[in-house]
Amino acid sequence: MIERKCIIIAGEEAGPKSNKMGGIWNVIDAEVKNLAQMLEDGTIEEESVPRIFVVGSYYGHSGSDWNKGLNRITDMTEFDDFVPDEELSMIIEELKVKGIELVVGAIQIKGIEIVYLMFKTNDFCRVVVEYKGEHICLENKIKAEAYDLIGLDSLSFEDLGNRTEYTHYLNLSYAISEFVHTLVSLREETAGAYKDKLISEFASSLMPTLYVSLHCHEFGVFYAIARLKKIGVTINTVATYHATIPGRVAGHLSIKKIRENDSSLGDGAPKNMVTLESLSSYADVVTAVGDSTKKEIKLFYGIDSIVVRNGIDLEIEDIDELLDKKLKCRTKIQELTASKLYNTHHSVELLPEKIIPIFSISRIEIENKGYPDLLDSLLLLDRMVRIEIEAGRLDNNYRVVCFIITAHGPKTNLPENFPIMLNEDILIGEELRIQNMIENRGLECSKLPNGDRYVSAILYPQWLSDHDGGFNMNVDEFMAGCIAGIFPSRYEPFLLTGLEAGKEGTPSIVSKVCGFSDALSTAKRLVMGMGGVLVVDNIDLAYLETIADYALTLDYFIDTYTDDKTKYNFLCQEANLLAKEMNWKEPTKQYYEMLTGTKLK
């Protein structure tokens, strides 16, 4: 009997990067690459190489994304020309008959083929199918069936403002589950096409016995697991939480809720999304990326989970090569900042080499990401730098610029000298609020040239790329070019961006609430005392103490950078070493064991 494993990794963002910054895509991409690496190097030993599928959404053109503000457009150009084999062709054709269209691509990673199936779900409302003897649109069939299978009452969610998002997740989960169902039943259906029993049994014996596993990242695809369980498709399933919806809504108050065993969801938790998230209970194994998320899953849903932390993969192993990259990127940021400031405000021309760039980057959640704390700490930092300059301990030409990189979505037709030049008409929603917060504190960059301020905050409301209309730098280049990153989150289940900064050899400051801060206690130290990644307590300290600590830790990195380049380079190496230690190999091994039941050495 021929046996073959199929591993399917699913997520709402489980496709090409399109024009989006980071997110679940990075996690899925890392899992796939490390899985391929371990199959290639023998860490995972299988007689037959498992077939790996990545499944997610396809946004073929402007307007096809459920979130019109994001307007994601899927780019499949990175994939090889792919001709599906007979088995996959049969599955695709059967799905088309059911009204499910998809785009297929493939890439080779370490000699292992990874097949990507991107589902078109935005037109399910226009596809007519039959359900219980009636002809209805596929979207309504999916909702009616979900009610019949698990009592998921989509009609009760119709008045909610996020119904389009909910419907997209339900449609995508249905499409993924139908692919799995078709894959699992293919052997039986192919053999059953022969009327002669002996021929049927012979045909069946020639086809491999499939052991299918499904790994779903985040609640948007959890219904796929529930539906497969209810229709009797036996596969191994894992549901991974990167945060919880009630936790996100509670934000920094989630810690209090955990301590007080308060399982109330809160007024802002969308009922439909919470319902989808609770469907992880149908999975064989539920995982959380950190301890706080594990506690939230238990608190809000009564579900036990296993912690499998996120990781990071280093692309540049040689530290000298990384330091060269940092110098090149820093020089670019310094020169562009100086020239854009001069061009915009027609003022004193600053010396590029005296500009000290730092950054913070995240989703645009002002309170959860701690932006008020960051801006207040920058005010304190400005006073500290001013005193150091007046005391003669710091050259009076130095200026500190903190780039706050966050946006509702990608922008086009930006003004010349963006982001130094920020017209209000390009800002929307929370972007405008952050800019007002900057101005209310007097932290505008226009005050830098004449020395009215020595520290400034610059909002960068755009998704970074090499053609973003601002500095035209990718995320890794921008991180590498800054002398430090600061992530003052009040709610942060893991904080992958902290590791991404370390990957680029950039020291960082993280809040105690972030999910990987505990790992820092075991990190190797190259510098005695304060190291390349510093933790600020934003849980137990009073607010003034917390923002003072943010300012003091930033000042430590600035002083080290300006006074002792050798020591600063050691801090960069230490941040990089932490990222190197927290790689994706161990998490991927854990996922593989859960998905296949195979114990790895």
From TrEMBL:
Q: Which domain of life is it from?
A: Archaea
Keywords associated with the record? Glycosyltransferase, Transferase
Which processes are annotated in GO (biological process)?
A: glycogen biosynthetic process
Q: Which molecular function term from Gene Ontology is one that the record holds? A: alpha-1,4-glucan glucosyltransferase (UDP-glucose donor) activity
| Keyword Kinase applies | no
Short name of one Pfam family: Glyco_transf_4
Recorded GO cellular component terms are: cytoplasm
Q: Which InterPro entries match?
A: Glyco_trans_4-like_N, Glycogen_synth
Q: Which residues form the Glycosyltransferase subfamily 4-like N-terminal domain?
A: 214-315
Q: Which PANTHER family match?
A: GLYCOGEN [STARCH] SYNTHASE, GLYCOGEN SYNTHASE
**Name used for this protein in its record:** Glycosyltransferase involved in cell wall biosynthesis
